[in-house]
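User: Predict VOC family protein's structure from this.
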Amino acid sequence: MITDPKLQLTIDCAEPERLAAFWAAALGYKVEPPSAPFATWRAYWLDQGLPEEELGEGDCSDSVIDPDGTGPRIWFQQVPELKVVKNRLHLDLGVSGGRSVPFATRKERVPAEVMRLETAGASRLSVDFEKGTTLRL
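Assistant:
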């Protein structure tokens, strides 16, 4: 029995490197560097014998890690099929400070974070402060 299991979150997607860069910025994570002595993950996987056709596009820089090592690794796995139904997983970022923080303060904090995430590549879909602090990116 494994006594210290490590959680990895795997997300199927069409553009793994783009999502990895965004979520690294959003969470304060970093894109996972390739194993030494390799300059790219693609070079690493080819050296390990993985066929080129299984690697998808780009350099395979498709995972992010918590620099402190406490949060889970997130792997953005490229899949050929397009999304056709609602996602069964969504990631919620709590940036307002929670209900212990006065509502007016929460309303001030969220727009700054929204702007930061938009700069990192997010698209704003809706904001509804009247029902609480709800934002969809």
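DSSP finds three helices and six strands in the chain.
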